[in-house]
Design brief:
With about 350 residues, the chain is an alpha/beta fold. The strands form two sheets. Strands 3-2-1-4-5-7-6 form a seven-stranded parallel beta sheet. The chain has a seven-stranded mixed beta sheet with strand order 9-10-8-11-14-13-12. It is globular. It has two domains: about 120 residues, Rossmann fold; about 160 residues, Dihydrodipicolinate Reductase, domain 2.
Length: about 350
């Protein structure tokens, strides 16, 4: 049984890790870390856990935690994991970090986009970017996983086959994305109040969203060239979900049927990536509560552009589910252990 500790267990992503691991046959949460609810029952913070766990929330001392568990999930704001992880801890325990601290290899780029100093850049070279469908072999032997962001997960998996095959002009890539409000975290913020969000939709972080360099880096690795994109996220009045619609110019005349075959080549053996039938557009409602990614493509012959679409649950495949998927790979378990949740509808 894998012993698990969670730092930030009372945030949305942390609670989602707990929910998933409650049904995991080979893992058990031993440590519910929380700064805000120390000594309070976890089930008092989240009523859905009533009668499922009697554990109390403890502090977030990673050194103490490393001696008690096999893997630590850090579902915390940017800057925390990099400020507390060290070589002594990594010799004892594996770490899956859900923040952006180790996703971007260029420390200057990280500090520019996030506006904070990176506290442990010495671990950037060894940190593995945990996009399982792309970096599975590297994840297997990793000590430190940089769990991908929600927008990058959906964006990269939607675009990856065509970027990898060199079929699109990477300088023309535009990513338009929509997200539910849980993507902003559980902290109280006026822009996320019900009356502020309901019956409205808005763009935010236009040209400045912090996931931009992460998407650019991963598409650069895939295509073998330096990629700069336009990425614009939008906030929509729903709890969960991300929908990505990405556009790019095709480099050559290729049929939609041939492009679909390319997607199937990359994803037919991937349990969590579902290439939808021809003409079916991804919808967030069909992935909610699951670790699935639904993708599809459409060619616009008139403009010689391809539209690449994807949908995920931002809290599952975009955060907690992918973190558990990484844990499964690291410990040699079947990748979908504890993650076979059927999407919830309605």
């Amino acid at each position: 049984m894998i012993k698990v500790g969670i730092i930030g267990s009372t945030g949305y992503a942390g609670q989602e890790i707990v929910r998933i691991l409650m049904n995991h046959s080979d893992a058990e949460v031993k440590w519910f870390g929380s700064r805000s609810y120390i000594d309070k029952k976890y089930s008092e913070v989240f009523g859905n856990m009533f009668c499922l766990t009697d554990d109390i929330c403890k502090g977030e001392d990673m050194n103490e935690l490393a001696s008690a568990v096999d893997v630590i999930f850090t579902a915390t704001p940017q800057g925390l994991c990099s400020s507390i992880v060290n070589e002594e801890i990594l010799k004892k325990v594996k770490v899956v970090d859900l923040s952006a601290d180790f996703r971007i290899k260029d420390v200057q780029k990280y500090e520019k986009w996030y506006g904070i100093e990176h506290k442990s850049p010495e671990f950037l070279p060894e940190a593995v970017y945990g996009l399982c469908e792309v970096n599975r072999d590297d994840v297997k032997n990793a000590r430190l996983i940089a769990n991908p962001g929600c927008f990058p997960t959906c964006s990269v998996l939607s675009i990856y086959p065509l970027a990898k095959e060199g079929l699109i002009d990477m300088n023309t890539v535009i990513v338009d994305a929509k997200s539910g409000t849980s993507g902003a975290g559980r902290g109280a913020k006026v822009p996320n109040l019900y009356c502020e969000v309901n019956e409205s939709i808005k763009a935010y972080g236009v040209t400045t969203h912090r996931h931009t360099p992460e998407i650019e880096d991963q598409l650069s690795y895939a295509s073998g060239e330096n990629v700069i994109i336009n990425f614009t996220p939008h906030l929509v009045p729903m709890n969960r979900g991300i929908l990505v619609t990405a556009y790019a110019t095709l480099k050559k005349d290729i049929s939609e049927a041939d492009i679909r075959e390319i997607y199937k080549k990359y994803y037919d053996d991937e349990y969590f990536v579902r290439v939808l039938d021809e003409g079916i557009c991804p919808e967030t409602r069909w992935v909610e509560g699951s670790n699935f990614v639904d993708v599809n493509v459409k060619v616009d012959k008139r403009t010689n552009r391809v539209i690449m679409m994807g949908a995920i649950d931002n809290l599952v495949k975009g955060a907690a589910g992918q973190a558990v998927q990484n844990m499964n790979i690291m410990f040699g378990l079947p990748e979908n252990t504890g993650l076979k949740m059927v999407p919830v509808f309605p």
